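Input/output pair, single chain:
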Amino acid sequence: MQAWQVHENGEPSEVMRLAEVERPAPGDGQVLLRVRAANVNFPDALMCRGQYQVRPPMPFTPGLEICGETEDGRRVIANPTLPRGGFAEYALADARALLPAPESLDDAEAAALHIGYQTGWFGLHRRARLQAGETLLVHAAAGGVGSAAVQLGKAAGATVIGVVGGAKKVAVARELGCDVVVDRRAEDVVAAVKEATGGRGADVVYDSVGGAAYTQSAKLVAFEGRIVVVGFASGTIPSPALNHALVKNYAILGLHWGLYATKDPGLILRCHEQLTELAARGAIKPLVSERVPLSDAAAAVQRVADGVTTGRVAVIPENGAVA
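Output:
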């Protein structure tokens, strides 16, 4: 079968190599899946660079989430077992962790429903306790993680402010349902948010960017607001001034979604059931901006790494099929 492999760390377009390899054999508790669609995540690029919290042994195949098909024909969502990730024709996964792919979504959309939407659901509902009528601000609102948070925020009845970079992403954020869109390249983000909220600021800030975005978050979060720290796509990990949090009475909440797989796996299933229901009634629908063949996976990961994509990019192997 064909699979992308990384033999050394570096930029995805330079270190990912398409190779002919043996089809993996399932071990105890594992299942072999035919990959119907694999979603590209920013951590795929970090793994290639050797900067991710998980460092699989080399050579490894990136690809953290897929829509796959079991040998008995069931369509499922899974996180492939590294080092054999999803940018391949076949992958292995933990049989106990398989989730049914929603019938309302095609393969590419189903593959994109998992990590980003689970992270959004846990961040907004489990950590920040977002309430209807509150104001939610989402950094990188047109991206894969941000677009999921925007849709989940709207589904929860919040007023959503999206921060994006560039006119193209402004249009995408508006189509996603943002009530207010701020172009960080053309506007003062803090001033624009304060104006949009009558000086109050945002009740919940969803920050997957870090760096300068976090500095803005601390300035624009409302009294008794919550900043959810999801990741650091900017490459800069901020050092919060805790005296500022004390003076302004806001909370800084960390979110590592992967921990729930070991700490409370039942919550992941419960979340998936709610996401499936939301998808069935059209309240959420993953924004898949590109569907590319397996041969173009390295270039797709590089585009995500460079921050030039919107929504999600899905890799479709030739043996896969969009339902």
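Residues 143 and 310 are 5 Å apart (CA to CA). The first strand starts at residue 2 and ends at 6.
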